[in-house]
Backbone:
């Protein structure tokens, strides 16, 4: 009899979770409809999140992910680095703990069931403030060091996200309750399925935190040539260990990481400024316009000039 009660409880909980997911999907869909976004992304200023919807599959797209939570509500996508690829289905979520150049594509989408997702940026300072209460979890067995972590979405996290969006709709609850719920969301990430990848990052002596320091150094000095030995010394690692761990965490080498960030920054600059292509190339660290054009074309499938013509600067 007791077993039947437990089974019923699990069934009721699963139905409640499915209902919450449907409610969150309906709410995000309504926000996208209100914004007039049939296909593409939308920055929802009230919540500080990004909402995405695509009615068809897409080709590979290169972009930069900063620390974030991405919840897939409908459809599926592939995301990864040059050496690692993860498939994310509806009902799953991923955490990105480091700034990463990634490639992604929508693999499941249709007019009837468009790919729909939300991206919740992570506040690393808030996570650090919360982390001391859960640091003992770092004693858990080590797992994959890759800085993109994929898990089934925790029902309590779905519930918190729905409440957060609803609270952001009204000024009073947005000011009083939404910050509390945002704190809850961060706390649940530290104690839920995604906990270990975040705790590794926040513990100042961990490999993940050292690699995080290295990626910040590369980002801050994007146009400068990387001297791997000097960078390894600054973060307190040997050359061989640094190279190995950098690739394990980011999915790429330090030099490739910098090259990808340079090219992505150049693409943004081409689309948002009227600077000459050679000026854009030199600004991100290239000494040769010809080399820049070759590597740009290889990465994006179009030359810098063709890319600029497709998306004219304002």
Residues:
């Amino acid at each position: 009899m007791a077993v039947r009660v437990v089974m019923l409880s699990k069934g009721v909980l699963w139905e409640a979770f499915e209902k919450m997911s449907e409610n969150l999907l309906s709410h995000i869909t309504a926000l996208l409809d209100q914004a007039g976004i049939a296909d593409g992304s939308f920055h929802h200023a009230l919540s500080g999140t990004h909402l995405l919807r695509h009615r068809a599959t897409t080709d590979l797209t290169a972009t930069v992910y900063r620390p974030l939570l991405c919840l897939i509500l409908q459809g599926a996508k592939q995301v990864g680095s040059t050496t690692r690829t993860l498939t994310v289905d509806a009902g799953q979520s991923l955490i990105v703990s480091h700034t990463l150049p990634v490639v992604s594509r929508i693999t499941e989408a249709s007019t009837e069931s468009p790919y729909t997702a939300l991206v919740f940026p992570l506040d690393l300072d808030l996570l650090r403030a919360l982390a001391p209460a859960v640091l003992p979890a770092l004693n858990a067995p080590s797992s994959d060091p890759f800085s993109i972590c994929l898990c089934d979405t925790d029902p309590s996290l779905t519930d918190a996200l729905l409440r957060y969006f609803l609270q952001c709709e009204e000024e009073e609850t947005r000011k009083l309750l939404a910050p509390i719920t945002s704190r809850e969301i961060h706390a649940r990430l530290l104690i839920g399925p995604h906990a270990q990848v975040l705790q590794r990052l926040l513990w100042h002596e961990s490999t993940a935190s050292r690699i995080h320091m290295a990626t910040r150094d590369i980002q801050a000095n994007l146009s400068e040539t990387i001297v791997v030995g000097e960078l390894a010394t600054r973060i307190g690692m040997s050359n061989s260990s640094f190279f190995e761990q950098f690739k394990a965490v980011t999915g790429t080498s330090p030099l490739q990481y910098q090259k990808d960030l340079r090219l992505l920054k150049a693409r943004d600059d081409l689309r948002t400024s009227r600077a000459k292509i050679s000026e854009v190339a030199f600004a991100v660290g290239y000494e040769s316009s010809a080399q820049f054009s070759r590597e740009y074309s290889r990465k994006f499938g179009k030359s810098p000039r063709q890319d600029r013509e497709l998306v004219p600067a304002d």
